[in-house]
Write a structure and sequence with these properties.
The chain is of the alpha/beta class. The chain has twelve helices and 13 strands.
């Protein structure tokens, strides 16, 4: 069996490589990785020690194929038609994480050749939960050329089923990139509330996704936070998203009590801090499995929503400072907040994700027996 697996960012790569390595354990399989990162204006990936797995790096005449006009999409497709067709002719199965315009073109060619394609969710699709993210929603038929879609957890699965009105191709096995976090959670000591010393603010990639209003709000919010009383009592670490503009935060580097983190490991950053501040990011649920509390700082949606619990959501700087102080001073409240956040996290991230690689591969093999 010949497998083609693609990714275009770090999260996708963390899903795809474990699948590729496991597939290659069968010496009869041919496995190739297709790195589409250059086509999405993503940082270069450092991939090494891939035994008997070929690597294809796909470049593009456009810096980012995500935001092309209709005419440019057509031109891009014409320039890649022969390339995509060759891939679809040679390989039997296409697996990708995350999805995008380029992946959609490849997947369509495979399906039209009666071959199966599989989409592994790289992050929870927040736009299905919050009205403020409506502009990021795909078309309801975006799974038309996908044979199977693997979600991070049960709640995302249910939401996606309702959105697409498709039940028989969306599965909840968890995803490989959460294997490590889930394993650490299952083997760690129970959460213990403690006084807060270090705060970690997670910025978003709003500018990359062309969400201008969010980008403007985020810059103003962080400036207000840096100039508030919060840094008189706590150390503020600003974790810059890999697709955010580091230049927005360079001016804070020399402020005492403020640190700018860029290019660092987010899991390690979360573990080394005491409380996380974030908008509606996938990372908030990862935070709970790493035994940390978080505060969602977000003024654009109702307090009651399916994604962010009211007990941890704030809309203003003053509310944010008050919430952090309460978490710091009232450890029983901190424990209550964490307990509610953990319940939610387990609905979004399958607690059996450490077995997701085998479950996904077993599913794919069962659906492609006739090709073996």
């Amino acid at each position: 069996m010949k497998y083609l697996l693609s990714f275009h960012n770090q999260q996708g790569m963390n899903n795809i490589i474990p699948i590729a390595e496991e597939l290659r354990e069968n010496i009869l399989n041919e496995v190739a990785l297709l790195d589409l990162s250059p086509a999405y204006s993503q940082p270069e990936n450092n991939i090494s020690s891939l035994k008997n797995i070929s690597l294809i790096v796909e470049n593009s005449i456009y810096k980012n194929v995500r935001n092309l006009s209709r005419i440019n999409k057509l031109f891009f497709y014409l320039t890649k038609f022969l390339r995509i067709n060759k891939l679809a002719n040679h390989y039997d199965v296409y697996i990708f994480s995350p999805g995008g315009f380029f992946e959609g073109l490849i997947s369509k060619h495979f399906i039209k050749k009666s071959k199966k394609t599989y989409f592994i969710e790289a992050g929870i699709k927040i736009y299905l939960f919050l009205s403020s993210q409506e502009s990021l929603k795909p078309k309801r038929n975006f799974l038309k050329y996908v044979s199977g879609y693997f979600t991070t957890g049960e709640t995302p699965r249910n939401k996606l089923v309702n959105f697409t009105n498709i039940n028989n191709k969306i599965y909840n096995y968890g995803v490989p990139r959460y294997s490590s976090i889930v394993s650490k959670y299952n083997n760690s000591k129970p959460f213990e509330p403690k006084k807060i010393i270090n705060l970690l603010y997670l910025t978003s990639a709003s500018k990359y996704h062309k969400v201008g209003w969010e980008d403007a709000w985020q810059k103003e919010a962080i400036e207000n936070l840096v100039n508030s009383s919060i840094i008189d009592q706590f150390i503020l670490n600003i974790k810059v998203h890999p697709r955010d503009d580091l230049g927005n935060y360079k001016k804070y580097e020399k402020i005492e009590g403020v640190n700018i983190l860029y290019g660092t490991n987010i899991e390690k950053d979360i573990v080394e801090n005491d409380c996380i501040i974030s908008g509606p990011s996938t990372s908030i649920h990862e935070t709970s499995l790493l035994k940390k509390t978080y505060v969602t700082f977000w003024p654009f949606d109702n307090n009651e929503n399916q994604y962010m619990p009211e007990i941890s959501m704030v809309k203003t700087i003053d509310n944010l400072i008050s919430k952090i102080l309460k978490l710091h001073n009232d450890l029983s409240f901190q424990n209550e907040v964490y307990s509610k956040q953990l319940i939610l996290a387990k609905q979004y991230i399958n607690i059996d994700s450490d077995s997701s690689t085998n479950s996904i591969i077993k599913h794919i093999i069962n659906e492609n027996k006739e090709r073996y």
